[in-house]
Amino acid sequence: MGLFQSEVADLLEVNTWTFSNWEKGRTQSPFAVMPAVFRLLGHDPYPKPRTLPEHLLAKRREMGWAIKQAAWAIGVDSSIWRNWENGQMILYRKHRVAVANALNLSMDALDEQMAIEWRKTHGRVRFDAW
């Protein structure tokens, strides 16, 4: 990019030491600065999400949200969002609708993914959403 650390730090609205620590891997940049990082780079440098937990994490990075903010945006408790990011199933249909809308995913695809997870953990063929 041809920019000095101090210039990038200014663009991201952080001090130079903070940026230097990120660059050297001493600390991780908070999600709050991710939208600015993506604008600066012109793209999201992370791999394209494949699983639902990866999609949830990518949405938080894109928006610069902490877990609490992401959960609030769709009307659930932060512990529920955290569980979903850690791979737990989204049991309730109203929650799946909110997640599908937030992530721009089709309900059919999300329902199918939940059914697959259900079969893996419960060994049953049928999965009914509540």
From TrEMBL:
<dbReference type="InterPro" id="IPR001387">
    <property type="entry name" value="Cro/C1-type_HTH"/>
</dbReference>
<dbReference type="GO" id="GO:0003677">
    <property type="term" value="F:DNA binding"/>
</dbReference>
<dbReference type="InterPro" id="IPR010982">
    <property type="entry name" value="Lambda_DNA-bd_dom_sf"/>
</dbReference>
<protein>
    <submittedName>
        <fullName>Helix-turn-helix transcriptional regulator</fullName>
    </submittedName>
</protein>
